[in-house]
Specification:
Order of helices and strands: HEEEEEEHEEHEHEHH
Structural class: alpha+beta
Helix content: 25-40%
Oligomer: single chain
Strand content: 25-35%
Shape: globular
Radius of gyration: 21 Å
Largest sheet: 6 strands, mixed
Number of domains: 1
Strand order of the largest sheet: 1-4-5-7-8-10
CATH topology: Trna Endonuclease, Chain: A, domain 1
Distance between the termini: 72 Å
CATH architecture: 3-Layer(aba) Sandwich
Length: 194
């Protein structure tokens, strides 16, 4: 912006992490919608449980003025696929060398352990260095239990994670990887029987 005496002043936007993962979330929402359209899976984004403290009224109706989180949410997405319960968390990091464990809350780690205990399919979808990976819940928990670092090195994610490639429809076909990991034997059994 130009001021009198040709003084030029620029303003920097403050650093914010708000909506950092929105593109990843949008791609996953599109993929899940596609899976439902073709009747492949029923997977939905879970709403965050919010309590309403104060409401005002406008011509459009009620407007929430103040709210609060009723309880800590678990993971971002859940549903059913091939008769199995499935749940996952989607995260984006700008860090190029590691995934900060601070991005996953202690109650979420506990929840991942519970889903594993009950034989559900649970994993993280992590976008790091502009690449999207699926990291199995048991590999994630194993890393936490066997390491004292406060982050997961990118090398670990590359070694143990599965790269999810972008495609037209679905945008991120993560169920293809789930088939390879969890349903491989089932697929081979069907081929052998026929």
């Amino acid at each position: 912006m130009k001021y009198p005496n040709n003084l030029e002043k620029t303003y920097k936007n403050p650093l914010t992490y708000k909506n950092r993962g929105m593109d990843l979330e949008e791609y996953l929402n599109e993929s899940n919608e596609y899976y439902r359209e073709i009747d492949k899976a029923l997977i939905y984004k879970k709403p965050t449980p919010i309590g309403v403290a104060e409401v005002s009224y406008s011509q459009r109706g009620k407007v929430i003025e103040r709210g609060f989180f009723k309880e800590p949410s678990t993971l971002d997405y859940n549903g059913l696929y091939r008769g199995k319960y499935i749940e996952y968390e989607a995260k984006v990091t700008k860090n190029k060398t590691s995934f900060p464990l601070a991005n996953i809350h202690p109650h979420q780690i506990k929840h991942i352990e519970s889903v594993l205990k009950h034989n559900g399919i649970v994993f993280l979808i992590i976008k790091i260095n502009e690449i999207v990976y699926l990291l199995k819940g048991d590999d994630f928990i194993s890393y936490i239990q066997n390491n004292s670092r406060k982050s997961i090195p990118y090398e670990f994610i590359k070694e143990y994670g599965y790269m999810i490639k972008y495609s037209y429809r679905p945008t991120l076909d993560y169920l293809k990887i789930i088939d390879e990991i969890y349903f491989k034997e089932e697929t081979y059994e069907k081929i052998e029987k026929n």
